[in-house]
Amino acid sequence: MARGTKKVGLTGRFQSRYGLSIRKRVKNIEEVERAYHVCPSCGHKKVKRISTAIWQCRKCGTKFAGGSYVPRTDMGRIVDRVLKGEMSLEESPDKTLENIEGEET
Fold this sequence. Notes:
Blueprint: H1 20-34, E1 47-51, E2 54-57, E3 63-65, H2 74-84, H3 97-104
Antiparallel strand pairs: 1-2, 2-3
C-alpha cells in the first residue's frame, strides 16, 4: 500500500493519477470525513463514521444518521433551528443581495 507524504497526505495512494485539483478536493473531503466530531448526545469529541451517512459515538455508543461526509449538514442545522422555533419557515437561510443592501440603510 502506498505511503502518504506530508504534502499530499491521504491522497498519496493516487500517486500522479487524476490531476492535482481533483486530488486536493478528495484530500479536503477525506480529512473532514475521517476526523473525530462532537457527539450530539454526550458532547464528547468521539464520533466516527461507520458507513455512508451513519455515525457512532465511541464514548456513549449513540448511532445516528447524518451527512455522507459530516455528521451534521448545513440543511440539518437549519431544520433543527426551525423545529426549535429559533427561525420561522419564511426566513431565508441565505441572505440575498437585496436583503443585505436593505439592512445597511
